C-alpha cells in the first residue's frame, strides 16, 4: 500500500516501504525460527498480503474488487489451508 502511495504521491512513502519490508522479513524469520515450515509460513504471508491489499485497495485507492477477484481470494485462502493441513501429518 505504501509503495502505491509512493509511486502516486510523495517520495517520503519510500521510507515506509523500506521499513515495511524489513519488519516483514524479521517477522517471517522469527516465524521460521519457531519451527513453522517454510511452505506454510510463506503461503500464509503471501495469501494474507494478496487478500488484504485487494480489499484495502478498493477502499483507499478506489480500485476494482470484482466477484471474480473475490473468488480468486477464496481459492488462495483454500489453497493455503490445504498446504497447512497437509504439513501437519
UniProtKB/TrEMBL annotation:
The keyword Aminoacyl-tRNA synthetase does not apply. Keywords: Antibiotic resistance, Cell membrane, Membrane, Transmembrane, Transmembrane helix, Transport. It is a multi-pass membrane protein. It holds the Pfam family Multi_Drug_Res. Its main location: membrane. It comes from the Bacteria. The keyword Zinc-finger does not apply. It is found in: Cell membrane. The chain crosses the membrane at residues 12-33, 39-57, 64-83. InterPro entries: EmrE-like (IPR037185), Small_drug/metabolite_transptr (IPR000390), Small_multidrug_res (IPR045324). Belongs to the drug/metabolite transporter (DMT) superfamily. Small multidrug resistance (SMR) (TC 2.A.7.1) family. Mmr subfamily. This is SMR family transporter. It comes from Gordonia tangerina. The lineage of its organism: Bacteria, Bacillati, Actinomycetota, Actinomycetes, Mycobacteriales.
Amino acid at each position: 500500500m505504501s509503495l502505491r502511495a509512493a509511486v502516486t504521491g510523495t517520495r517520503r512513502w519510500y521510507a515506509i516501504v523500506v521499513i515495511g519490508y524489513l519488519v516483514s522479513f524479521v517477522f517471517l524469520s522469527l516465524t521460521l525460527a519457531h519451527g513453522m515450515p517454510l511452505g506454510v509460513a510463506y503461503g500464509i504471508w503471501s495469501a494474507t498480503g494478496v487478500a488484504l491489499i485487494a480489499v484495502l485497495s478498493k477502499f483507499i485507492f478506489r480500485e476494482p474488487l470484482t466477484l471474480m477477484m473475490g473468488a480468486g481470494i477464496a481459492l488462495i485462502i483454500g489453497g493455503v489451508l490445504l498446504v497447512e493441513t497437509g504439513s501437519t501429518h
